Backbone:
Protein backbone atom coordinates (compact mmCIF):
# COMPACT_ATOMS: atom_id res chain seq x y z
CA UNK A 1 0.00 0.00 0.00
CA UNK A 2 2.75 2.47 1.00
CA UNK A 3 4.74 1.58 -2.15
CA UNK A 4 1.72 2.33 -4.32
CA UNK A 5 1.24 5.66 -2.54
CA UNK A 6 4.90 6.52 -3.01
CA UNK A 7 4.82 5.73 -6.72
CA UNK A 8 1.67 7.81 -7.14
CA UNK A 9 3.33 10.78 -5.40
CA UNK A 10 6.41 10.51 -7.62
CA UNK A 11 4.21 10.89 -10.70
CA UNK A 12 2.07 13.80 -9.44
CA UNK A 13 1.30 16.67 -11.80
CA UNK A 14 1.52 20.31 -10.75
CA UNK A 15 -2.25 20.50 -10.39
CA UNK A 16 -2.27 17.44 -8.14
CA UNK A 17 0.47 18.96 -6.01
CA UNK A 18 -1.52 22.18 -5.65
CA UNK A 19 -4.51 20.16 -4.48
CA UNK A 20 -2.23 18.40 -1.98
CA UNK A 21 -1.04 21.65 -0.36
CA UNK A 22 -2.16 22.15 3.22
CA UNK A 23 -4.19 25.28 2.48
CA UNK A 24 -5.30 25.62 6.10
CA UNK A 25 -1.67 26.21 7.08
CA UNK A 26 -1.30 28.76 4.27
CA UNK A 27 -4.47 30.52 5.47
CA UNK A 28 -3.23 30.71 9.07
CA UNK A 29 0.10 32.13 7.87
CA UNK A 30 -1.70 34.81 5.83
CA UNK A 31 -4.06 35.75 8.69
CA UNK A 32 -1.13 36.02 11.13
CA UNK A 33 0.84 38.19 8.71
CA UNK A 34 -2.22 40.41 8.18
CA UNK A 35 -2.38 40.88 11.94
CA UNK A 36 1.21 42.12 11.68
CA UNK A 37 0.36 44.54 8.83
CA UNK A 38 -2.38 46.07 11.00
CA UNK A 39 0.02 46.61 13.91
CA UNK A 40 2.68 48.13 11.64
CA UNK A 41 0.01 50.47 10.25
CA UNK A 42 -0.85 51.52 13.80
CA UNK A 43 2.81 51.88 14.85
CA UNK A 44 3.34 54.26 11.89
CA UNK A 45 0.51 56.47 13.13
CA UNK A 46 -2.08 55.34 10.59
CA UNK A 47 0.15 55.23 7.52
CA UNK A 48 1.24 52.45 5.19
CA UNK A 49 4.66 54.07 5.01
CA UNK A 50 7.37 53.34 5.90
CA UNK A 51 6.65 49.79 7.09
CA UNK A 52 3.41 48.28 5.76
CA UNK A 53 4.13 48.80 2.07
CA UNK A 54 7.56 47.17 2.24
CA UNK A 55 6.48 44.40 4.59
CA UNK A 56 3.45 43.44 2.48
CA UNK A 57 5.59 43.41 -0.68
CA UNK A 58 8.12 41.13 1.02
CA UNK A 59 5.34 38.89 2.25
CA UNK A 60 3.84 38.67 -1.23
CA UNK A 61 7.17 37.67 -2.76
CA UNK A 62 7.83 35.28 0.11
CA UNK A 63 4.40 33.68 -0.33
CA UNK A 64 5.10 32.99 -4.02
CA UNK A 65 8.50 31.57 -3.07
CA UNK A 66 6.89 29.42 -0.36
CA UNK A 67 4.43 27.84 -2.80
CA UNK A 68 7.18 27.36 -5.39
CA UNK A 69 9.35 25.52 -2.85
CA UNK A 70 6.34 23.38 -1.88
CA UNK A 71 5.82 22.31 -5.50
CA UNK A 72 9.41 21.19 -6.11
CA UNK A 73 10.11 17.50 -5.57
CA UNK A 74 11.38 17.01 -2.02
CA UNK A 75 14.19 14.78 -3.31
CA UNK A 76 15.63 17.78 -5.16
CA UNK A 77 15.89 19.78 -1.94
CA UNK A 78 17.50 16.75 -0.36
CA UNK A 79 20.14 16.60 -3.11
CA UNK A 80 21.12 20.26 -2.79
CA UNK A 81 21.17 20.31 1.03
CA UNK A 82 24.97 20.29 1.27
CA UNK A 83 25.56 22.89 -1.51
CA UNK A 84 22.86 25.08 0.08
CA UNK A 85 24.63 24.87 3.44
CA UNK A 86 27.97 25.65 1.77
CA UNK A 87 26.50 28.76 0.12
CA UNK A 88 25.04 30.00 3.41
CA UNK A 89 28.36 29.39 5.17
CA UNK A 90 30.27 31.33 2.49
CA UNK A 91 27.84 34.22 2.87
CA UNK A 92 28.40 34.19 6.65
CA UNK A 93 32.17 34.36 6.09
CA UNK A 94 31.64 37.21 3.62
CA UNK A 95 29.74 39.14 6.32
CA UNK A 96 32.84 39.14 8.53
CA UNK A 97 34.96 40.41 5.62
CA UNK A 98 32.77 42.91 3.73
CA UNK A 99 29.57 43.01 5.78
CA UNK A 100 27.56 46.14 6.53
CA UNK A 101 27.52 47.41 10.12
CA UNK A 102 24.19 48.40 11.62
CA UNK A 103 23.09 48.79 15.23
CA UNK A 104 26.61 48.06 16.45
CA UNK A 105 26.77 44.65 14.72
CA UNK A 106 28.12 43.43 11.40
CA UNK A 107 25.31 41.16 10.17
CA UNK A 108 24.31 42.22 6.67
CA UNK A 109 25.58 41.90 3.12
CA UNK A 110 24.70 44.75 0.77
CA UNK A 111 23.65 43.42 -2.63
CA UNK A 112 22.93 46.88 -4.03
CA UNK A 113 19.16 46.67 -4.35
CA UNK A 114 18.69 44.75 -1.09
CA UNK A 115 20.49 43.90 2.15
CA UNK A 116 20.76 40.21 3.05
CA UNK A 117 21.27 38.74 6.52
CA UNK A 118 22.98 35.39 5.84
CA UNK A 119 22.48 34.16 9.41
CA UNK A 120 18.73 34.01 8.70
CA UNK A 121 19.36 31.83 5.65
CA UNK A 122 21.62 29.57 7.70
CA UNK A 123 18.74 28.73 10.08
CA UNK A 124 17.01 26.88 7.24
CA UNK A 125 20.18 25.55 5.60
CA UNK A 126 21.44 23.94 8.82
CA UNK A 127 18.20 22.05 9.49
CA UNK A 128 17.95 20.97 5.84
CA UNK A 129 21.52 19.63 5.94
CA UNK A 130 21.17 17.83 9.28
CA UNK A 131 17.91 16.25 8.13
CA UNK A 132 19.74 15.05 5.01
CA UNK A 133 22.62 13.69 7.07
CA UNK A 134 20.50 11.72 9.54
CA UNK A 135 18.22 10.41 6.78
CA UNK A 136 21.22 8.49 5.47
CA UNK A 137 22.01 6.81 8.80
CA UNK A 138 20.60 3.62 10.24
CA UNK A 139 19.12 3.74 13.78
CA UNK A 140 22.22 1.93 15.01
CA UNK A 141 24.57 4.48 13.41
CA UNK A 142 22.69 7.41 14.97
CA UNK A 143 23.73 6.17 18.41
CA UNK A 144 27.42 5.76 17.55
CA UNK A 145 29.97 8.37 18.64
CA UNK A 146 31.76 8.62 15.31
CA UNK A 147 28.59 9.88 13.65
CA UNK A 148 28.32 12.81 16.05
CA UNK A 149 31.40 14.67 14.83
CA UNK A 150 29.98 15.85 11.49
CA UNK A 151 26.67 17.26 12.80
CA UNK A 152 28.43 19.11 15.63
CA UNK A 153 30.88 20.56 13.12
CA UNK A 154 27.99 21.61 10.87
CA UNK A 155 26.42 23.42 13.84
CA UNK A 156 29.47 24.98 15.46
CA UNK A 157 30.91 26.58 12.31
CA UNK A 158 27.94 28.90 11.65
CA UNK A 159 27.30 29.45 15.38
CA UNK A 160 30.89 30.66 15.81
CA UNK A 161 30.60 33.01 12.83
CA UNK A 162 27.30 34.42 14.11
CA UNK A 163 28.66 34.97 17.64
CA UNK A 164 31.51 37.02 16.13
CA UNK A 165 29.04 39.42 14.43
CA UNK A 166 27.82 39.55 17.34
CA UNK A 167 24.28 38.11 17.29
CA UNK A 168 23.65 35.96 20.35
CA UNK A 169 19.92 35.53 19.64
CA UNK A 170 20.49 34.00 16.21
CA UNK A 171 23.29 31.80 17.56
CA UNK A 172 20.86 30.40 20.14
CA UNK A 173 18.28 29.72 17.42
CA UNK A 174 20.87 27.90 15.30
CA UNK A 175 21.88 25.72 18.22
CA UNK A 176 18.28 24.98 19.16
CA UNK A 177 17.40 24.04 15.58
CA UNK A 178 20.39 21.76 15.17
CA UNK A 179 19.95 20.03 18.53
CA UNK A 180 16.24 19.53 17.81
CA UNK A 181 17.03 17.64 14.60
CA UNK A 182 19.54 15.50 16.47
CA UNK A 183 17.01 14.77 19.19
CA UNK A 184 14.30 13.86 16.67
CA UNK A 185 16.79 11.64 14.82
CA UNK A 186 17.28 9.55 17.95
CA UNK A 187 20.64 10.72 19.31
CA UNK A 188 21.09 9.30 22.82
CA UNK A 189 19.95 11.42 25.77
CA UNK A 190 23.31 11.12 27.50
CA UNK A 191 24.80 13.22 24.68
CA UNK A 192 22.51 16.12 25.54
CA UNK A 193 23.16 15.62 29.25
CA UNK A 194 26.90 15.81 28.62
CA UNK A 195 26.43 18.96 26.55
CA UNK A 196 24.39 20.56 29.32
CA UNK A 197 27.05 19.73 31.91
CA UNK A 198 29.80 21.09 29.63
CA UNK A 199 27.81 24.28 29.02
CA UNK A 200 27.38 24.83 32.77
CA UNK A 201 31.07 24.18 33.39
CA UNK A 202 32.02 26.66 30.65
CA UNK A 203 29.67 29.38 31.94
CA UNK A 204 32.44 31.40 33.70
CA UNK A 205 34.52 31.43 30.50
CA UNK A 206 31.45 32.33 28.45
CA UNK A 207 30.58 35.17 30.84
CA UNK A 208 34.12 36.54 30.78
CA UNK A 209 34.00 36.77 26.96
CA UNK A 210 30.63 38.51 26.74
CA UNK A 211 30.64 42.12 25.59
CA UNK A 212 29.72 44.81 28.10
CA UNK A 213 26.31 45.49 26.55
CA UNK A 214 25.48 41.76 26.66
CA UNK A 215 26.37 41.61 30.37
CA UNK A 216 24.21 44.68 30.91
CA UNK A 217 21.27 42.82 29.34
CA UNK A 218 21.63 40.04 31.89
CA UNK A 219 21.89 42.50 34.79
CA UNK A 220 18.89 44.37 33.43
CA UNK A 221 16.91 41.13 33.17
CA UNK A 222 17.64 40.38 36.83
CA UNK A 223 16.89 43.93 37.99
CA UNK A 224 15.44 46.37 35.39
CA UNK A 225 15.10 49.12 38.02
CA UNK A 226 18.88 49.35 38.48
CA UNK A 227 19.08 51.72 35.48
CA UNK A 228 15.53 52.81 34.54
CA UNK A 229 16.68 55.52 32.11
CA UNK A 230 19.48 53.47 30.59
CA UNK A 231 19.75 49.73 30.06
CA UNK A 232 16.49 49.04 31.90
CA UNK A 233 14.47 51.56 29.87
CA UNK A 234 13.34 49.19 27.12
CA UNK A 235 11.96 46.44 29.31
CA UNK A 236 10.37 48.82 31.81
CA UNK A 237 8.50 50.67 29.07
CA UNK A 238 7.49 47.32 27.60
CA UNK A 239 6.01 46.20 30.92
CA UNK A 240 4.17 49.50 31.33
CA UNK A 241 2.63 49.11 27.86
CA UNK A 242 1.66 45.49 28.52
CA UNK A 243 0.02 46.33 31.83
CA UNK A 244 -1.78 49.43 30.56
CA UNK A 245 -3.50 47.43 27.82
CA UNK A 246 -5.57 45.48 30.34
CA UNK A 247 -8.03 42.87 29.13
CA UNK A 248 -9.48 44.63 26.08
CA UNK A 249 -6.77 47.15 25.27
CA UNK A 250 -6.88 50.89 24.63
CA UNK A 251 -8.18 50.44 21.10
CA UNK A 252 -6.60 50.25 17.65
CA UNK A 253 -4.13 53.12 17.11
CA UNK A 254 -4.79 54.39 20.66
CA UNK A 255 -1.65 53.09 22.33
CA UNK A 256 0.11 55.87 24.23
CA UNK A 257 3.43 54.14 24.93
CA UNK A 258 4.02 53.37 21.27
CA UNK A 259 2.54 56.49 19.66
CA UNK A 260 4.31 58.84 22.07
CA UNK A 261 7.56 56.98 21.28
CA UNK A 262 8.17 55.74 24.84
CA UNK A 263 8.27 52.18 23.52
CA UNK A 264 11.54 51.38 21.68
CA UNK A 265 11.68 49.24 18.53
CA UNK A 266 7.88 49.22 18.40
CA UNK A 267 7.85 47.87 14.83
CA UNK A 268 10.41 45.07 15.32
CA UNK A 269 11.42 43.34 18.56
CA UNK A 270 8.72 44.95 20.74
CA UNK A 271 5.76 44.78 18.35
CA UNK A 272 3.96 42.29 20.60
CA UNK A 273 3.94 44.99 23.28
CA UNK A 274 2.36 47.44 20.82
CA UNK A 275 -0.29 44.84 20.04
CA UNK A 276 -0.99 44.04 23.70
CA UNK A 277 -1.34 47.73 24.61
CA UNK A 278 -3.90 48.39 21.87
CA UNK A 279 -5.68 45.00 21.72
CA UNK A 280 -5.22 43.97 25.34
CA UNK A 281 -4.90 40.45 26.69
CA UNK A 282 -7.66 39.29 24.31
CA UNK A 283 -5.73 40.49 21.25
CA UNK A 284 -2.53 38.88 22.52
CA UNK A 285 -4.28 35.57 23.16
CA UNK A 286 -5.84 35.69 19.68
CA UNK A 287 -2.39 35.99 18.12
CA UNK A 288 -1.07 33.17 20.32
CA UNK A 289 -4.05 31.02 19.21
CA UNK A 290 -3.06 31.61 15.57
CA UNK A 291 0.48 30.58 16.41
CA UNK A 292 -0.74 27.45 18.20
CA UNK A 293 -2.77 26.50 15.12
CA UNK A 294 0.33 26.88 12.94
CA UNK A 295 2.42 24.82 15.37
CA UNK A 296 -0.14 22.01 15.55
CA UNK A 297 -0.32 21.76 11.75
CA UNK A 298 3.47 21.90 11.44
CA UNK A 299 4.09 19.10 13.94
CA UNK A 300 1.25 17.06 12.39
CA UNK A 301 2.94 17.36 8.98
CA UNK A 302 6.22 16.14 10.51
CA UNK A 303 4.50 13.12 12.05
CA UNK A 304 2.59 12.36 8.85
CA UNK A 305 5.70 12.08 6.65
CA UNK A 306 6.65 8.49 5.75
CA UNK A 307 10.35 9.29 5.29
CA UNK A 308 12.98 10.26 7.86
CA UNK A 309 14.12 13.30 5.87
CA UNK A 310 10.65 14.84 5.86
CA UNK A 311 10.03 14.17 9.54
CA UNK A 312 13.33 15.74 10.59
CA UNK A 313 13.04 18.68 8.19
CA UNK A 314 9.48 19.65 9.15
CA UNK A 315 10.03 18.91 12.85
CA UNK A 316 13.21 20.98 13.01
CA UNK A 317 11.77 23.95 11.14
CA UNK A 318 8.53 24.14 13.12
CA UNK A 319 10.51 23.86 16.38
CA UNK A 320 12.67 26.85 15.37
CA UNK A 321 9.45 28.75 14.61
CA UNK A 322 8.24 27.94 18.14
CA UNK A 323 11.54 29.05 19.69
CA UNK A 324 11.31 32.31 17.70
CA UNK A 325 7.94 33.27 19.11
CA UNK A 326 8.62 31.92 22.63
CA UNK A 327 11.82 33.94 23.03
CA UNK A 328 10.27 37.14 21.66
CA UNK A 329 7.12 37.03 23.79
CA UNK A 330 9.04 36.00 26.93
CA UNK A 331 11.61 38.73 26.23
CA UNK A 332 9.10 41.61 26.02
CA UNK A 333 7.41 40.33 29.20
CA UNK A 334 10.71 40.40 31.07
CA UNK A 335 10.91 36.62 31.45
CA UNK A 336 14.10 36.41 29.34
CA UNK A 337 16.94 38.87 28.63
CA UNK A 338 16.58 41.05 25.54
CA UNK A 339 18.39 39.23 22.72
CA UNK A 340 16.95 40.82 19.58
CA UNK A 341 14.76 37.99 18.25
CA UNK A 342 11.85 39.20 16.04
CA UNK A 343 8.25 38.00 16.39
CA UNK A 344 7.71 35.68 13.37
CA UNK A 345 5.36 36.95 10.64
CA UNK A 346 4.64 40.09 12.69
CA UNK A 347 7.86 42.07 13.23
CA UNK A 348 9.10 44.35 10.47
CA UNK A 349 12.10 42.91 8.66
CA UNK A 350 12.81 41.49 5.23
CA UNK A 351 15.36 38.74 5.88
CA UNK A 352 13.41 37.25 8.78
CA UNK A 353 10.11 37.28 6.86
CA UNK A 354 11.58 35.65 3.75
CA UNK A 355 13.44 33.02 5.82
CA UNK A 356 10.32 32.08 7.77
CA UNK A 357 8.29 31.69 4.58
CA UNK A 358 11.12 29.69 3.00
CA UNK A 359 10.97 27.37 6.01
CA UNK A 360 7.22 26.96 5.63
CA UNK A 361 7.78 26.23 1.95
CA UNK A 362 9.88 23.22 2.95
CA UNK A 363 7.27 22.15 5.52
CA UNK A 364 4.56 22.31 2.84
CA UNK A 365 6.82 20.38 0.47
CA UNK A 366 7.09 17.65 3.11
CA UNK A 367 3.29 17.55 3.26
CA UNK A 368 2.81 17.48 -0.52
CA UNK A 369 5.41 14.71 -0.89
CA UNK A 370 4.67 12.95 2.39
CA UNK A 371 4.31 9.48 0.82
CA UNK A 372 7.41 9.59 -1.38
CA UNK A 373 9.78 6.63 -1.31
CA UNK A 374 13.15 8.27 -0.55
CA UNK A 375 16.08 5.82 -0.49
CA UNK A 376 18.76 6.04 2.18
CA UNK A 377 22.45 6.50 1.54
CA UNK A 378 24.96 5.04 4.02
CA UNK A 379 26.82 7.39 6.33
CA UNK A 380 24.76 10.47 5.45
CA UNK A 381 26.60 10.80 2.11
CA UNK A 382 24.88 13.04 -0.47
CA UNK A 383 23.39 11.62 -3.66
Residues:
Amino acid sequence: MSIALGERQQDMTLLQKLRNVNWLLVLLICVTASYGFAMLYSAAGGSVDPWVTRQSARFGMGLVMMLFVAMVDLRFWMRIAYPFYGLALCLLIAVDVIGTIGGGAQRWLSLGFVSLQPSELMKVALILTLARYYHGLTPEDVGRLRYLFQPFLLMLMPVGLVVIQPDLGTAILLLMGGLTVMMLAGVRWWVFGTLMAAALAAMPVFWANLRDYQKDRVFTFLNPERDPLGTGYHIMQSKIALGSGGVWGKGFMQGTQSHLNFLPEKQTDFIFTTLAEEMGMVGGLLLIALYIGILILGFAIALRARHTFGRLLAGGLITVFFVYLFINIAMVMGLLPVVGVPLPLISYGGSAMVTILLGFGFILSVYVHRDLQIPKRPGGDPF
